[in-house]
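In the previous chapter we treated chains in isolation. Here, by contrast, the input contains two separate entities that must be folded as one system, with a combined length of 508 residues.
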Amino acid sequence: MNPASTPDHLEAYARAAASYAQLPIRDEWWPEVLRHLAVLDRQAACVVSHPGSTAQLLSPALPG
Amino acid sequence: MSPCLDAIGTVSAIRAGTTTATRTCARALASARASDLGCFTEILTERAEREAGRIDAALAAGAEVGALAGVPFAIKDLYDLRGVVTRSGSTINLDRPPAAADADAVQRLVSVGAVPVGTTVMDEFAYGFTTENEHYGPARNPHDPSRVAGGSSGGSAAAVAAGIVPVALGSDTNGSIRVPAALCGILGLRATSRAISTAGVEPFAPSFDEVGVFARSARDLVAVTEILTGQSVVTPAARSARLRVGSAGGYFRRGADHEVLRCVAHLASVIGVEHDFDIPGAAEARAAAMVITAAEGAQHHLEQLRTRPQDFDNMTRCRFLAGALVPASWYLAGQRFRRWFREQLLAVFEHIDVLLTPTVPFRAPLIGQREAMVDGETVLTQPYLGAFTQPISFAGVPAMSVPCGTVEGLPVGVQLVAAPGCEAALLAIAQRIEDELDPWPGVR
């Protein structure tokens, strides 16, 4: 499940995560960071959840 | 200055004695210096002159020289070059020491006599599709210098399209070879995942990162790809005539400029494409590629994002910062989807050898243009340039862009896609297209 389903949730998550990750995001950068994160949120939401093991994914059978 | 010959023509001329490696490389160096397209971050005059002189001396002594002896080439600024700082389009990397050795791909070309003449401008850390770099300037499109060359390997593509060098190295994570190749009207190949060594190349998103080549002739692409992969990629003529080509419908027909679609449809009729195929999940594949790229790219630069975010290009900083905040669940869902999507795409190649799509949804945008109209809808120019290339690299299959016409003087490219390890089929169809359309008369 995405941590944010509304812009408010997303911003709350982003500010907490940035603080924990020690990312010094300036006030003037936040609107653009949140815009990009909102795009990624939408992209993640449209990826259908497929079953499968992540370990399989990282096996030599799939390059990368 | 007239455009240079292609690499094969250059080698022939040098071997025939109608020119020398020294004269050929001097011409490339002079063109690079004189160009106002902003292709280069550094011109390697001393090294190029030294290596060209060595090739001429070997030829004069009757010694064996390599398959690309005396061919000048350009290198995207994220490959290591001995004695040169690998900037990756950033000023942050200027703090690094010069590289101790050439990247593997550079070594392979140098080992057969090719001569590196310069490093080329790119989007900072390869995160972009336009090569609008605020530190080193934009790479301009040779067909209209007010427009972008595409990215992130825009400097390499523009240098080849302008005829400064016959071939150049680029890298392609989500389309960074195919997009600029299409916008500049040249050929650009991304090989099967891990078919070409990426050692000595700064990573961007390792799940998708590949290196590859730009050229103005299919025969050059064959020659350089064989050197880089160490494998033959020639298709016998009899087999080439039997290759089955299909066209991608659905997602790959929506959201593209009508003139681009018309060019691709014309090409499809010229080369006898008979069947259309829908690729299930292509839009989701692009979405997942964007999430994975953001997360992996940010991870690679996490320490710099913590300690000196102000030194990033304004075009990339906030994208990297957003990527650093991507939750693991988004990333892993994308990776799981990748396996499923790859299976869907590979199933298509049970029916055909090569799949054809537009490379880019529209022609080269203006430098600084943030939005474009497609099908009556406003889209963001920068990310949308990768709409048709991202799903393909997501699956790890080989792909290339080939010029297929122009609209109002601006090139249109067609993307060719094949099953893993089938670069030969791609190059055979590229040769067929080149024979039909001859986009670079006189270059061969």
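Residues 30-46 of chain A form the longest helix (17 residues). The radius of gyration of chain A is 15 Å. Compare these points with the single-chain example from earlier in the chapter.
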